[in-house]
Design a protein that fits this description.
Blueprint (H helix, E strand, L loop, with lengths): L15 E2 L3 E3 L5 H14 L1 E5 L3 E4 L1 H13 L1 E5 L3 H10 L6 E3 L2 H6 L2
Parallel strand pairs: 1-3, 2-4, 3-5, 5-6
Length: 107
């Protein structure tokens, strides 16, 4: 039991997923399954988006749906991901961080 003098258990850092390549309607299910598993186990996930080279609306929909019920942090988005998020205004909604370390340190 934590007392005022003891901080108690530290929360575990969120897991980091670092997918690479293209993600569209057909290739998205394995990534979605990984994100869903991380969310189920940890309540959230850091998505290191630096290695993502192409995304479509299915990817965007997955991010927004995950954001609705979990602690989703997008880290180091590639130009492609950043551009999509900016064009549709999702960068104003999602928690986007310049690096994985910044995402892990965010509260």
């Amino acid at each position: 039991m934590a007392t005022p003098d003891s901080p108690g258990p530290r929360p575990q850092p969120l897991p980091v997923l670092a997918p690479f390549g293209e993600f569209d309607h057909d290739s998205l299910p394995p990534l979605k399954a990984q994100i869903d598993a991380a969310v189920a186990a940890h309540g959230g996930v850091v998505l290191d988006a630096e290695g993502i080279t192409f995304v479509d609306s299915a990817f965007l929909g997955m991010l927004l749906a995950t954001h609705q019920h979990a602690d989703l942090r997008v880290a180091a988005p590639s130009f492609t991901v950043a551009r999509l998020l900016n064009v549709v205004g999702a960068d104003m909604v999602l928690r986007i961080h310049p690096t994985v370390q910044d995402a892990l340190g965010a509260a």
